[in-house]
Design goal:
This protein has helices at about 20-25, 55-65, 85-90, 100-135, 155-170, 175-185, 190-205; strands at about 5-10, 25-30, 45, 70-75, 95, 135-140, 145, 150-155, 175, 215-220, 225. By secondary structure, the protein is an alpha/beta fold. Strands 2-1-3-4-5 form a five-stranded parallel β-sheet, sandwiched between helices. A three-stranded antiparallel β-sheet has the order 6-7-8, covered by helices on one side. The chain has a three-stranded antiparallel β-sheet with strand order 9-11-10. Keywords: DNA-binding, Phosphoprotein, Transcription, Transcription regulation, Two-component regulatory system.
């Protein structure tokens, strides 16, 4: 259930939405131009009384945007509202004019409200799964890594390739030579260990809580690096 604010600047617009149907699924809260309790709302419907309300609605949109992230829906009093583009430009999420069918309006509102709880639900599910199964998961399509199921970290190409190599050899020491050939496709350059150490340093800064005491990427003295998860 969501809190939906209802701010009426006229009487005609209310007939275009089924208030009783909305009340069955959500809580309707009457608000005034003072925007009482706007911080507690998931959405607010502003019912335009006539075109003279344009400047007032523009001011209301600006105030709402400063105080809340709720959906802002405007119900206009005409079929072709002169303020529609202005409302949208100021940050209204949807502007319903007289040409919109009540059922269409209802579906749009309900679909938007359904999305409010989905991100948190998905985050909780992902967090639970990752805590149970793995602390670190590569995401090749994003060139990133998901840490503990709730924090996605974007990597450079070299950082991702290094972490991918270490993941494939989890718990085993991967030699400097193997890492260098994987990252740079050659074995003729000098200062190989320095170049590898530089990539490891930047990678550790992104995924380790303490770079000086790394938990995931362990240094295997004189040999290379090992992933420990």
């Amino acid at each position: 259930m969501c809190n939906i604010g209802m701010l009426s600047l006229g009487t005609n617009a209310e007939n275009r939405i089924d208030i009783e149907e909305i009340k069955q699924r959500h809580k309707i809260i009457e608000v005034t131009e003072e925007l009482e309790l706007v911080e507690t709302l998931q959405a607010i419907i502003i019912l335009e009384g006539n075109i003279s309300n344009l400047s007032m609605i523009c001011e209301l949109i600006s105030k709402i945007k400063k105080r809340s992230t709720c959906y802002i829906w405007i119900m206009t009093a005409t079929e072709k509202s002169v303020g529609k583009l202005v409302y949208l430009q100021l940050g209204a999420d949807e502007v319903f004019d007289l040409s919109r069918e009540p059922k269409e309006i209802s579906f749009i509102m309900e679909n938007s409200l359904l999305r409010i709880n989905q991100p948190q639900a998905k985050a909780n599910l992902v967090t639970e799964n990752y805590h149970e199964e793995e602390l670190l998961k590569l995401i090749p399509t994003n060139v990133s890594v998901m840490m503990e199921g709730n924090k996605e970290i974007v990597l450079t190409k070299l950082e991702f390739q290094l972490l991918e190599l270490l993941c494939r050899n989890q718990g085993l020491a991967v030699s400097y030579e193997t890492i260098y050939q994987k990252l740079w496709k050659t074995d003729t350059a000098e200062n190989k260990q320095y170049r590898i150490a530089n990539v490891v340093y930047h990678l550790r800064r992104k995924i380790e809580k303490n770079v000086k005491k790394p938990i995931f990427i362990k240094t295997v003295r004189s040999r290379g690096y090992m992933l420990n998860i």
